Amino acid sequence: MSNHEHDHDHGGSGGHAGHSHSISADADRKWLLSALTLIVVFMAGEVVVGFAAESLALISDAAHMLTDAASIVLALIAMRLSRRPARGGYTYGLKRAEILSAQANGITLLLLAAWLGYEAVTRLFDPPEVTGSLVLVTALVGVVVNIGAAWCMSKANRSSLNVEGAFQHVLTDLYAFIATAVAGLIIVTTGFGRADAIASLIVVALMLKAGTGLVRDSGRIFLEAAPAGIDPDSVADRLIDSSEVEEIHDLHIWEITSGQPALSAHILVAPGGDCHAVRRNLQRTLRDEYRITHATLQVDHVGEELGQELLAIGRSAVEAGEASGAEHCGDSHGPVHRSGPHPH
């Protein structure tokens, strides 16, 4: 059996100097576990009180807290998996385990929101007797518990989509408990039982918002979309302005996992240009201006893959192919960016 325990020294020529593949070891487990303990203990009591008071608002809050607890557990598991070194067929390791758990959490939120929304609408038409005093007291305790849980999670690393998603859910719970407390107060003072169902619908709306956001953000990572806030065309225009760069194509920008953008591109440099100097300059620009430290750049001179014939800069790929008998990249993915005005 071959021994795979060997070093990989990229030096700087490989285009990866200065970046780290490890997810921040900073997602503090102690704070996450503290928040998880608060949430689970209170959730269990809330379920009991919710059924005793026949309050759908309290049961809705408990269901939301269940997804919060699940998201924290999944975050802890995913953080452990993501720290495993890349090996074998998993060349990025298991970094996207956190994205899988975030997406599962988002889908669960949407399913719970659909069920609770149906129940809430039903109770609007046929409201049961709700014990407003129990609802009010439990909701006020819930506000305190969620403030404590939010404070604990604010101490942990929130660059992870999982941890940030769980943190936002705790804040959503806080708002939901405030709405439930208001509903309990209305029931106690006026006897308006439908206030409980209305509060449940508010919780449902918050769950839909949080779930949609998690599914959208995790979906963008799985579909290899450019990170939010980074426009590939703008990045290409910035790079093409660099000295000696004539063309950029096969430009891809994606996220390995939340907070870890990566880029690859094929760069064509003017004949006689210093390819190594151009690569170092482009990587410096990507690191300093876009915080992209994982950049793989293939840098060639214009026309060097076509022998002595130069690529016809400024003409379409088809025209260039007809003129030279072959294209520089016969299967180019995405737009070609050239120096000077050009359409995207």
Automatic annotation (TrEMBL):
Bilayer topology: Multi-pass membrane protein
Basic and acidic residues compositional bias, start-end: 1-11
Gene Ontology molecular function: zinc ion transmembrane transporter activity
Residue ranges of every copy of the Cation efflux protein transmembrane domain listed in the record: 33-222
Cation efflux protein cytoplasmic domain ranges (all copies): 233-301
Keywords: Ion transport, Membrane, Transmembrane, Transmembrane helix, Transport
Main location, first listed in the record: membrane
SUPFAM superfamilies: Cation efflux protein cytoplasmic domain-like (SSF160240), Cation efflux protein transmembrane domain-like (SSF161111)
Stretch list, region Disordered: 1-21, 322-344
InterPro entries linked to this entry: Cation_efflux (IPR002524), Cation_efflux_CTD (IPR027470), Cation_efflux_CTD_sf (IPR036837), Cation_efflux_TM (IPR058533), Cation_efflux_TMD_sf (IPR027469), CDF/SLC30A (IPR050681)
Transmembrane segments: 31-52, 58-78, 99-118, 130-153, 174-192
Pfam families according to UniProt: Cation_efflux, ZT_dimer
Compartments where found: Membrane
Composition bias, Basic residues: 335-344
Cellular component aspect of the GO annotation: plasma membrane
PANTHER family the UniProt entry points to: CATION EFFLUX PROTEIN/ ZINC TRANSPORTER (PTHR11562), RE54080P-RELATED (PTHR11562:SF17)
Family per similarity comment: Belongs to the cation diffusion facilitator (CDF) transporter (TC 2.A.4) family. SLC30A subfamily.
Protein name: Cobalt-zinc-cadmium efflux system protein
Organism name: Kitasatospora gansuensis
Lineage: Bacteria, Bacillati, Actinomycetota, Actinomycetes, Kitasatosporales
